[in-house]
């Protein structure tokens, strides 16, 4: 999730401070998420996803090609 949020933020031209203000958290929280030190709550992930017009699933790197039964990507079979 860390690089996706950073990539979305930088593509939107937002600073960490601006993102933090828009989702009502501290810059430290955004920084920790982007460094992979903190997993956001579902509510915070939803706010971030909505801001970037995406889904929580996309933020969490959940793709359709993941098979839950086998726990592998289709290209790993």
TrEMBL record:
InterPro entries: Cro/C1-type_HTH, Lambda_DNA-bd_dom_sf. It holds the Pfam family HTH_3. It comes from the Bacteria. GO terms for molecular function: DNA binding. Signal peptide: none annotated. Residues 5-59 form the HTH cro/C1-type domain. Keywords: DNA-binding. This is Transcriptional regulator. It comes from Evtepia gabavorous.
């Amino acid at each position: 999730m860390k690089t996706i949020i950073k990539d979305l933020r930088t593509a939107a031209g937002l600073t960490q401070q601006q993102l933090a203000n828009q989702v009502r958290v501290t810059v430290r929280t955004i920084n920790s998420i982007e460094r992979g030190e903190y997993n956001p709550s579902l509510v915070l992930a939803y706010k971030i996803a909505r801001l970037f017009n995406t889904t929580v699933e996309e933020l969490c790197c959940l793709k359709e090609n993941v098979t839950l039964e086998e726990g592998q990507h289709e290209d790993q079979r």
